[in-house]
Amino acid sequence: MATSGTGTGGGLSEQQQEAMRRAVPETMLATPYLSWLGLHFERYEPDDVVMRLSFRPELTNDGTYYHGGVVAAALDTAGAAAAWSNHDFNKGVRASTVALSLQYVGAAKQSDLVCHGRVVRRGKELTFIEITAADAEGSVVAHGVQTYRIV
Q1: In the chain, how many domains are there?
Q2: 46-80, pLDDT tens digit by residue?
Q3: Is 90 within the bounds of a domain?
């Protein structure tokens, strides 16, 4: 997603910004890893994203419970999507997770994983996001905070 505007004049119009924001879900899920992982969007609103990971035994430790790395990847992705959902593309398009802190508080037993990312604050380059993963019945599996940088 290259832009001609970099905040030094000649920036993107709000219509162009919205078009780029709307393209994020498809662009993210087209990457090889995320495509394989199988996440999909249930909600993609400014600063508020919900993603679902359909249960598959190959994502587990034992055919029943998700591997912790899978939960972390799903949470990281939901947080990143929330950061992009209301991003000012005139500020840039290079991004990465700067920090991710998770607490595993439960386990999803042969259940879809529902991840919610909500932006708490946007700074000049850093976006701070709260993220939660729950099983299909709504029981929390993991909670975290993420710092995401886009320049």
Answers
A1: 1
A2: 999 999 999 999 999 999 999 999 999 999 999 99
A3: yes
